[in-house]
């Protein structure tokens, strides 16, 4: 019996020796690559809290193996070439694109509703005479319909938070697709603005689900090099939907019967079934599976997201270890996963960043660009030309979003957003000066229209798509979905309480009738949020989720995120590894004595 105990102790000591040797070898390789604290020169460093590492070690069976594998996955992902990521993860790209296509449907629907206030068939059906021989939708109804959509989105976002926590991203999206299929009947058969408003409220509930789940899914199924491509693609899906909508409206603008506005709504029924089938077949987010303790499902999802030829079982084990380690680290920092936890400790800072980043998207002046066709008409451009300009604007917006793919990883998220805001501020000032004369001349009208077009393109080259990357990267993995929901609801709330109330009245000839001068107002809100971005928005380019957790835990200032060096997971957990090894050895010796 004593001989078997000695043999057991010898095996354990051998395992510990091999594990420690692996750790030393990995650290030497890190030193050769210039990772961790081996960087030369001055600069801020971020460390893993030893107390957190010790608590993680106490919660897992084989901490040393977990850390070694997690560190391997972390370094593999951080150093992965873009070409390799495209080669190994084409299935992750495809699944993410399928789920994100929900936003094509939403972009189409919201664009149709936003354009109807300037669309002749709809104005003639539901508007009132404006004294100039035309019909206008009253600003109160414009505000009400837009507000109903935003309220619906807020409700939908909250529902998404509950459903996704229990059933996962896929089934939450599928339930919203089923709902929106039924809700389209309301605006399609509406005979008055009240029914139309109710329809937009219900559709908004489904759209709210799409806004959160697609972004969270895109952020969780791909490695670091692909993250900004798939999250900004969400914005491109919006633009694709708006582009299709603009083309449909241009084609029907001269149709005077009720089918002039019914046909665009009926086209929304094309989307739900194919998207629903694709969503059903897609793998669940492996991060969601880890958070809920479904490790086998998480591993199966990882393997479905990558090509087997470039993703071995060792790679899968390492990726699983990194997810488990990150999840355990976040549990030690903040154990809860409720909305209230988003406002506690270091997560409060992360919540501030995602909420104000999304608010900057709507407060930077894009309110004018979102009502472009209406703005063009109030600036003196003909109805037909205004819709053609809007169509061209959406095409340029798509070009702007695609252009971010080639520059975002070079200049970074923070830099691109900041200089995009500065450029929009200049364009808004120019637009405002074009409205000084009342009425503006033809040249001034077209100049103002051109500035708004450039404003929209700039937004969709910078703050428009990059917001989706920032809000998906910034939260902790355990609070990602809820943080995105809070941020998007802040966006919707400001639209209800402020944007919709102000923007429609600024442009409506029945209300304030500011015309291009409204741009001065938005230049003021732009500069406020530009200042916040300069001081408070961190750079997340190239960081894994574990590294971002460490940066926030170390309370690194926003402007030093990019330059701060982070020790490797092995270096930061040496004390905890040694402690667990001593505990194992001590327990083995006690058994030997006994």
General form: elongated
Rg: 27 Å
Reported for the largest beta sheet, the result is: 2 strands, parallel
Oligomer: single chain
Task: Please render the helix and strand layout as text.
Elements (H helix, E strand, L loop, with lengths): L1 H32 L11 E2 L3 H10 L3 H16 L3 H7 L1 H11 L1 H15 L3 H7 L1 E2 L5 E2 L2 H29 L1 H15 L1 H5 L3 H28 L3 H29 L6 H8 L5 H10 L4 H6 L3 H11 L7 H21 L11 H19 L2 H5 L1 H7 L4 H29 L1 H21 L8 H18 L3 H11 L6 H28 L10 H19 L8 H9 L11 E2 L2 H4 L1 H20 L1
Parallel strand pairs: 1-4
Antiparallel strand pairs: 2-3
Helix pairs in contact: 1-3, 1-29, 2-17, 2-29, 3-17, 5-11, 5-12, 6-12, 8-9, 8-11, 8-25, 9-11, 9-14, 11-12, 11-24, 11-25, 12-21, 12-24, 16-17, 17-27, 18-24, 18-25, 18-26, 20-21, 21-23, 22-23, 22-24, 22-26
List keywords for this structure.
594 residues, mainly alpha, two-stranded antiparallel ribbon, 29 helices, 76% helix, disordered N terminus
